[in-house]
Write a structure and sequence with these properties.
With 747 residues, the chain is of the alpha+beta class. It contains 26 helices and 25 strands. β23 and β24 form a beta hairpin.
Length: 747
């Protein structure tokens, strides 16, 4: 009969309980039931096996054979005695003088001797590994833990002599590269975390649950095991023993219980099963083909730390002084055998496009695009961070569900730029504004990887625009050879579809971002000027169907962008474009748009029903699109009522800056029309517009339109939005046709 046993004591958080789950599955499958499988049900691990609950407990108490965990390369591993000291103290340091003789036993050496003299058949492999290790230490003449070349030689020799079971531990804790030993973050520095030595602690915890003479369980072993497996209530936990980085809640120290300080409280079975489970994470030395560089550490689902996406996030967490790495441990909801799990761990490499994920943000992107192994339902993210003095804790950061999020593929447009920018920003001289903008971008990317929808895509677009804006403000740093960061490359038109939320702010920003016109420079050469090339010192290029942008070293932008009043900024941009058009000798205003604005949205803009700050933020992100590739139907057009009209004042002035022929007539440019409106003189602006239209042969049934100062300035700014032939025809019918009610009035 097959039994499903829910192990309430095995959970995704903390890390010790997750590793304990893997340890239970591995040991049951390798030592008693080869067909055992495991999966996650909610936040509990379920073991599917021929063992029932009582049989499972009996197996661990009486039949479980511990994996040999030995680390003679570490000082506290039990293979080296402590140096003898005299009673006499040094008058300078105040410490007892040392004799130079290492002959004092320690708790670690005592437990090694106890295992060597044990007679239990359950420890046969352990005794064999200890004998091989002690003989190696004797032959190599080590009186204390080896360092540097001697340490590497010790590990290499051990690898060739230890039994296969002990090699499993060595593979999980140390990786030999051409340069030096490297250490996976899960097991500290080669099975050592500060003063806590894992192999010695593992042996000591075995002594707590097992009588080494006959292999029978100790008096408290059953109670501890019930608590470790099924979360049963218990007392009698071991106090003051090391637990390392895996179980922060049991590590003791300040505010851990009543009073100012406390010692750790540890269930020995938690520690034993935790270490057994960690052996499933097999580290390897990864080496690129045809590369002469030394091998680098490759570890399942382990990446560099990204200090974003969790409550206590800080850029300081990305420093190697504050964080070793972060690891994303997989959770799965279908029964999986230990062999399948081993394959997953050995091949579990998250990819972003053609490359491996490098940091937490990359890993989130890989999860969202299914660039990871199949069969995983979610990942629990942990960071190995300094959280208790100088001690590292496996800090749970957040949970990521594995589901298809196709919008994350949009980020491939900025993949190389983002990677380059992160490396440059990590330099010491990076402006704080650039660092803040990049962190905000990473935050929005993480949210995009978890949630789909236009608002999330817009947030990323806004964050990209903010990065581009601060690079423009820090242009000297961005162009420096040592810290060079290029402008953000053109984004694909697919961003429009994913970011379209149907709001007037988005439609107006899209229309404005698509603005372009043909001008002439001082040498008489024609060029196309988009709004991006106007507000940024950049130059666009196209080659073999590909487009890109570079910094323009020949001059600055035609108009600087400020974070002040958006209406004032838009009027400044419009004014500059009018001047450039006049200087180019244009016979009419030249600007058009890939996406034209609707009169209803323009009416909302003039009448104050549009969030100008958000529209301006969206504009900076939408300016980054590759607009020559955007089609006219890229956005869903909103059909507003024909009665929605921006007003006669706007209609008169827009016919003078239409960018198109008005009823077959090109209306010459009169810069003073826009200038007066931008200053708040609506009557003067419309009077000039009427004169210009009459001079072009049109019949205008009104002499002037009086506007309030604010309405005049907003109307002047609204002239920059491009409109299509149909919208222009509507305007002409309203303000030029006889009989239309356009009497002078205050708007």
């Amino acid at each position: 009969m097959i039994h499903d046993i829910e192990l309430g004591g095995c959970a995704p958080v903390p890390l010790a309980y997750y590793l304990k789950s893997l340890g239970v599955l591995r040991l049951v499958a390798e030592q008693t039931d080869m067909g055992a499988k495991g999966f996650w049900r909610g936040d509990a691990f379920v073991l599917r096996s021929i063992l029932d609950k009582e049989s499972l407990v009996r197996f661990f108490l009486r039949d479980y054979r511990p994996t040999p965990i030995v680390a003679p390369w570490n000082g506290g591993s039990g293979f080296y005695f402590r140096e003898e000291k005299l009673c006499e103290k040094d008058p300078v340091t105040g410490k007892k003088k040392k004799t130079g003789r290492r002959n004092l036993p320690t708790a670690a050496t005592r437990v090694v001797d106890a295992l060597l003299t044990s007679s239990s058949h359950r420890l046969d492999s352990y005794r064999e590994s200890l004998v091989v290790s002690k003989e190696l230490v004797r032959k190599m003449g080590f009186e204390k833990a080896p360092v540097e070349e001697a340490k590497m030689e010790c590990i290499q020799t051990l690898r060739g002599r230890l039994p296969d079971l002990a090699i499993t531990w060595l593979d999980a804790s140390v990786v030999l590269t051409e340069e030096k030993p490297r250490y996976p973050p899960l097991l500290g520095t080669g099975g050592n975390d500060g003063d806590a030595e894992f192999s010695s602690n593992f042996m000591q915890r075995l002594c707590d649950v097992m009588d080494l003479c006959n292999g029978m369980p100790t008096d408290d072993a059953s109670t501890w095991l019930q608590g470790a497996l099924f979360a049963d209530t218990m007392d009698g936990l071991l106090k003051g023993v090391a637990v390392g980085q895996f179980l922060p809640c049991a590590a003791g120290r300040v505010n851990a219980e009543f009073g100012f300080d406390s010692k750790s409280l540890v269930n020995p079975w938690d520690y034993i099963l935790m270490v057994e489970g960690a052996l499933l994470f097999a580290a390897t030395a990864a080496k690129r083909m045809e590369s002469s560089e030394p091998g680098v550490l490759s570890y399942p689902f382990s990446v560099h730390t990204s200090g974003v996406g969790y409550g206590s996030a800080s850029q300081a967490d990305e420093s190697t002084d504050n964080s070793r790495a972060e690891i994303w441990v997989p959770l799965w909801d279908r029964p999986t055998s230990v062999n399948e799990l081993k394959a997953l761990m050995s091949e579990g490499r998250a990819q972003v496009g053609p490359r491996f994920a490098r940091n937490g943000v990359d890993f989130a992107r890989a999860v969202a695009t299914l660039g990871v192994d199949r069969g995983i339902s979610s990942f629990q993210r942990y960071g190995f961070q300094v959280r208790n003095g100088r001690a590292y804790f496996a800090t749970p950061l957040n949970r990521f569900q594995v589901r298809r999020q196709p919008q994350v593929n949009l980020l491939s447009d900025v993949d190389k730029w983002l990677d380059s920018c992160i490396r440059r920003v990590n330099s010491r001289n990076a402006p704080a504004s650039v660092s803040r903008a990049l962190r905000q971008l990473e935050e929005t990317i993480l949210v995009l990887c978890k949630e789909r929808g236009p608002p999330r895509t817009q947030d990323v677009l806004i964050a990209l625009g903010e990065c581009e804006k601060v690079l423009v403000k820090s242009n000297k740093w961005a162009r420096d050879e040592k810290s060079f960061v290029s402008p953000i490359p053109p984004l694909s038109p697919n961003w429009l579809k994913e970011a379209d939320d149907g709001s007037p702010e988005f439609r107006l920003a899209s229309s404005l971002a698509s603005l372009h016109g043909q001008y002439r420079n001082r040498k008489g050469r024609e060029y196309w000027m988009s709004i991006r090339t106007q507000v940024e010192p950049i130059r666009t290029w196209m080659k073999e169907g590909r487009s890109g942008v570079t910094w323009n070293d020949e001059g600055t932008a035609d108009i600087g962008w400020s974070d002040g009043d958006p209406v004032r900024v838009l009027n400044a941009i419009m004014s500059r474009r009018i001047i450039l058009a006049v200087q180019s000798g244009a016979d009419a205003y030249p600007d058009k748009g890939r996406l034209d604005a609707e009169l209803g949205d323009i009416a909302d803009f003039i009448e104050g029903r549009v969030d100008l700050r958000r529209m301006a933020s969206l504009l900076w992100g939408l300016m980054l699109l590759d607009w020559p590739k955007v089609t006219e139907n890229a956005l869903t057009r909103i059909c507003r009522s024909e009665a929605v009209f921006p007003g006669a004042g706007y209609g008169l002035m827009k016919l003078c800056f239409s960018g198109r022929e008005v009823k077959g007539v090109r209306v010459p440019i009169v810069p003073e029309i826009h200038r007066r409106a931008a200053l708040g003189d609506g009557a003067g602006a419309t009077q000039l517009a009427v004169r210009r239209l009459r001079g072009s042969g049109f019949s205008v049934p009104v002499g002037t339109v009086s506007l309030s100062r604010e309405s005049a300035q907003r109307t002047a700014a609204a002239l920059i939005f491009p409109v299509d032939d149909y919208q222009l025809s509507r305007l002409a019918d309203k303000v030029l046709r006889r009989g239309v009610e356009c009497d002078e009035k205050e708007v």
